[in-house]
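Exercise 7.
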Amino acid sequence: MRNRIISFFAAAAMLITLLPSFEVYGAGKPSVSALAAVLISADTGEIIYSVNHEAKLPMASTTKIMTALLCLESGNLDEEFVVDSEAIKVEGSSMGLQEGDIVTKYALCCGMLLPSGNDAANAAAVRIAGSIEAFAEMMNERAEEIGLTKTYFVTPSGLDGEGHGSSAYDMALLAREALKNETFREICSSETIKLSFGNPPYDRWLTNTNKLLSMDDGVYGVKTGFTDEAGRCLVSACERDGENLICVTLNDKNDWNDHIAMYEYGFQTVQNKSPELPETFELDIVGAQQDKITLEPDMSAAQIATAADDFSQFSYEVIAPPFVYAPIKTGEQAAALRIAYQGREVCIVPLLAAGDYDVIQDTSKNSGGKKNFFEKIIAWFRD
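Solution. The predicted structure, written as tokens, is:
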């Protein structure tokens, strides 16, 4: 009881000293009860609304977003194995694992993302890294790769550990990364999942703790969390009319309603926009009558949900080999354009051939002095 009283006053003091920090566009900002909150565009990662979004706080079981992502990225998801008997001896929420149970990594991901099983998170960690400590190192390495600057992982489950914490903004960026994994998105968006595990395995149903899935048709994840120290934590994602937003609240007693209010504001603020790109690009081509190929961006793939008034903070990079080979037909992809916002990849836009580029048929001396296929390669290397 004494620890709970201390935690309460510590949280109250932080709430008073941390002034709200907003990066918003437009009017009609919602008022939320969270100690920290953020709403971002899933496309760009730009902040649409925030309160104390950089404050490092405990984030409870939303930690399992990283645990599940690493588990999915480790591969062999359908391989059966026996859970580590010590790993599953953990307090708190559970998917119901018992000593000797036969599971798969896929089942463990479902177990940690739906009923928020601490046993599933620990079992996955030991299976992948050999120990909880080694897995925590993997979590922190992956966090650094994503660019999370306020995050430190100690446990795969999100149970309290010294230094274990993150910011609302970091958790939003983590969810943005995780949702690029189609299997992750499929699992975390499911209200229920039927699985077979045990000893021997038998069918059973798991239920998602995320009530927001049934409260808003556009919501497709992501993860709930709660401990006495962290309070109620929630990471969610929502799609409307092709626009995708990600919302995070930490230490929020009214998280369901706060997320809905933030989405109402966010979808009135962002718009799907097309960046102003050059109409055509050129690349060297070998084996064709022409020396250059003209490419056009596929603008249907360049719809970006953003609240920015212009694209001055966006950058573009052509992804292509030094040259391409004929033949290439109209509309065929020959390269791509990487669009980034403040260094974060937003989307990849295909660059399509603007015409037909056929292989040279006549390479004789009477061909008007044009280089044949092999002469063009030699000339390219000489240049």
